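Thread: quick sanity check before group meeting

JM: Hey all, I'm pulling together slides for Thursday and realized we never actually wrote out the predicted structure for the chain we discussed last week. Dropping the sequence here so it's in one place. If anyone has concerns about the input, flag it before I start.
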Amino acid sequence: MIRVLLADDEHLIRGAIATLLSLEPDIEVVAEVARGDQVAAAVREREPDVIVLDIEMPGMDGLSVAETLPGHAVLILTSFGRPGYLRRALAAGVRGFVPKDASADELATAIRKIHSGGRYLDPEMAASAMMAGESPLTERERGALSLASRGATVGEIAASLHLTEGTVRNYLSSAITKLGATNRITAIRVAQEKGWL
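JM (edit): ok, ran it. Output follows.
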């Protein structure tokens, strides 16, 4: 049996996926969690073979969770097929990336493939990621823009990143320019749509 852990904050969707996977003769859902910060404990306790993560979860997003699970077979199941998310997931060692509108058969196939050591990437998502290119943002620009997207002021961003306010303004200005935006709000929107935040 392939032991699976499901992490998704939407109870109905998580329950439906668990029910559909339980119909597969070789797949068993051994744990379900609703928050990203609950995954590590569930992995230690239940020892799943495959970890299926949503991206948008409270506590910790699925991509950040994946970065903390090196060596584990991780599959991202998401309704956010943004190119930057796929690139970040692959950089974190994620072996599967499947949209939530995939069929139950496709999800089961992806789980089996990554359990056997392979990779499974949704073809449309892979093509979009290749066409979108890499993020033009540096890690500092992304960090400053990410904090700004949560409503942090320049002073709060500076304190959080241990930088001066002038340096933060420079990072934000550079990000705005690189994204072809006219202001911080537009830059945040562009970066989020591309999956770069």
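AS: nice. The longest strand covers residues 27-33. The two ends are 36 Å apart (CA to CA).
JM: adding both to the slides.
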